[in-house]
Amino acid sequence: MAGDRAGDYRILHDAALRDYLAGVPDLVALLGAEPVSWSITEVGDGNLNLVFIVKGDRGGVAVKQALPYVRLVGESWPLPLSRAHYEFLALSRQAELAPGLVPALLHHNETLALTVMELLEPHIIMRKGLVAATQYPRFVDDITTFMARTLYFTSDLVVSAADKKQAIAAFAGNHALCKITEDLIFTDPYRVAEQNRWTAPYLDALAAGLRDDMDLHVAVSRLKLKFMASPEALLHGDLHTGSIMVTDSQTRVIDPEFAFYAPMGFDVGAVLANLLMAYFASAGHERSPGERQAFEAWVLETVEKSWNEFARKFLDLWRAGAMGDAYPVSLFASEKGAARLEAERQAYMQRLFADTVGFAAAKIIRRIFGLAHNIDFELIEDPRQRAICEARAVRLARAMMVEAGAFPAIADVTGAARKLRNWQPEFAAG
Q1: Which of 228, 300, 329, 424 could form a disulfide with 414 if both were Cys (CB 3.0 to 4.6 A apart)?
Q2: What digits encode the pLDDT tens for the residues 269-293?
Q3: How many CB atoms lie within 10 A of CB 323?
Q4: Can you tell me the distance from the alpha carbon of 156 to that of 165, in angstroms, rounded to the nearest whole number?
Q5: 362/218 Cα distance (integer angstroms)
């Protein structure tokens, strides 16, 4: 699996990919001894990379290769291949901290920006399942374990200051992917930007309103500053329901190429945002009124449990033994100190929750007015109905970002979402 640096970068398709894999003995043994019989299917539907499923008579693998540009846009938007290196580093670290919750790494070639991973079958992208109103009973336990362990164990609560700085340095070169986040999430939706799009003409006035909303501009800029200036822990960096593969009994987190040290609430907020968008989009997928009521109730319950279980697990890890340079044990050794430290833990989690709410809001707005959208909304065929669902989500998101004090607990978020479920926006067109 160790990084093979032989050869120059080239994009591998079909025969070239087959020949390359046939030269890796471990993969030949896994797939089967006759490379000519392997099936190779390009399945990448993401924004950045090529993804292939390769199957032989013994087994299968997933192959991911980074392109030197943003696939969604084309060669006019170049992007460094080094992102594949950071994804490999992140997956390796996540496998240590949250075993069984990421795909197994089988091979990596840094020069080719290529990684071969365990083939996840019969897993599907969670977002597709949510569009189909599928409920996933394992999701909450798995995703909260993943977040709690990957965030806690890479934070100053556990890691020494020196080790933390070295870890930050190891991912500091991934700044091109961070720049995408900084622009597409925190900046572009609030200004005129070539890549922006929305459900026109219905959301034209709402888009213009975002560009004129100075309260929102201040709130999102504060979030952007926090993202850039607060390396709290190693983030996945793009933890949405399109980066999670699921079955009824398993959850696997994939695609951490945006991995970077940044505020914890960014990852947690991304999960909650995508669940909330699934909730608001649900009405647009109804074939008859009320048919998705049970699913929508499950989604809001999952939002609440995702935060509550994450917070519980994170605190349990902290209480079990913090070894980092933050909150030195020697300062809180007495009974009085222990009580004060517990109060500080609760305050820490309240600050983390406030960050989570704000970042979730930013994620929602960017998916409706920015470059890359969610199929949750995009697969709603009637554009007016799609715009209604999106407007409900945006109304909640603006409140979450600008009126943060109105959301002291996760139940306040789900309660507000529930109230907006049947709200009817007024459109100038249609």
Answers
A1: 300
A2: 999 999 999 999 999 999 999 999 9
A3: 9
A4: 10
A5: 12
Q: ∠ at Cα 185 (347, 75), nearest 5°?
A: 145
Tokens encoding 215: 């309260």
Peptide bond into 201 cis (omega under 30): yes
Two structure tokens written together for 64: 């991911």
- Whether residue 251 contacts residue 138, with contact meaning beta carbons closer than 8 Å, is answered with yes
Please report where in the chains the tokens 């299968």 appear, as a residue.
60
Amino acid at 32: G
333's enclosing H/E stretch is none
Answer yes or no: are the C-beta atoms of 131 and 275 closer than 8 Å.
Answer: no
Strand partners, 260: 235
The C-alpha angle with vertex 120 and arms to 117 and 122, in degrees rounded to 5, equals 165
User: Rounded to whole angstroms, how far apart are CA atoms 427 and 388?
Assistant: 9
Threshold 0.90, pTM exceeds: yes
Closest CA to 203 of 369, 25, 8, 27: 369
pLDDT in tens, 359-417: 999 999 999 999 999 999 999 999 999 999 999 999 999 999 999 999 999 999 999 99
Supply the DSSP string of 277-298, one letter for each residue. HHHHHHGGG-SSTTTTHHHHHH
- Pick from 227, 234, 303, 232: nearest CA to 95: 234
Who contacts 390 (Cβ-Cβ below 8 Å, separation ≥6)? 198, 199, 203, 280, 368, 377
Q: Where do we find the tokens 């336990």?
A: 141
